[in-house]
Amino acid sequence: MERKVKHLTEMVEQHKRGNTNGIYAVCSAHPLVLEAALRYAHSQQTPLLIEATSNQVDQFGGYTGMTPADFYGFVCKLAGSLGFPTSQLILGGDHLGPNRWKNLPASQAMANADDLIR
């Protein structure tokens, strides 16, 4: 899956021309939530923005046990099983700053946050 900034920049351009628009988005790593979101976006023939928080998914596995690469693979596999084109997926992250590691020294928390967004 290539980066899908194009979907978002096209939406901004439409908005600037006075057209109303939006994007369907969910912030979850739960399989049933993702399945419902994929089914809805597929039925509406729209792109889908899926975000996970750094608590859910991080370079150490988060509470789901998934790294960003694992999450990407999981979402793509689920999308494929439902016939949703991966070209319509936009994956992102929410709350990716150092707060996830607030129990660590600031320098280590910042280093972890920096590593997460690479």
Rounded to the nearest angstrom, the radius of gyration is: 16 Å
- Into which percent range does the helicity of residues fall? 40-55%
The number of distinct helices, counting runs of at least 4 residues, comes to 4
Q: Tell me the structural class.
A: alpha/beta
Strand order in space, largest sheet: 1-2-3
Distance between the termini: 17 Å
Unreliable stretches covering 5 or more consecutive residues: none
Q: Could you spell the SSE succession in H and E letters?
A: HEHEHEH
Which percent range describes the beta-strand content?
5-15%
> How confident is the prediction overall: mean pLDDT?
92
How does the major sheet shape up?
3 strands, parallel
Shape type:
globular
Count of DSSP strands: 3
- Name the quaternary structure: single chain
Task: Outline the structure in words.
It contains four helices and three strands; from the N terminus they run H-E-H-E-H-E-H. It is α/β, with parallel strands linked by helices. It has a domain at 27-92. Strands 1-2-3 form a three-stranded parallel beta sheet, covered by helices on one side. The longest helix is centred in the N-terminal third of the chain and has 14 residues, at 31-44. The chain is globular, with a radius of gyration of 16 Å. The two termini are 17 Å apart. Pathway: Carbohydrate metabolism; D-tagatose 6-phosphate degradation; D-glyceraldehyde 3-phosphate and glycerone phosphate from D-tagatose 6-phosphate: step 2/2.
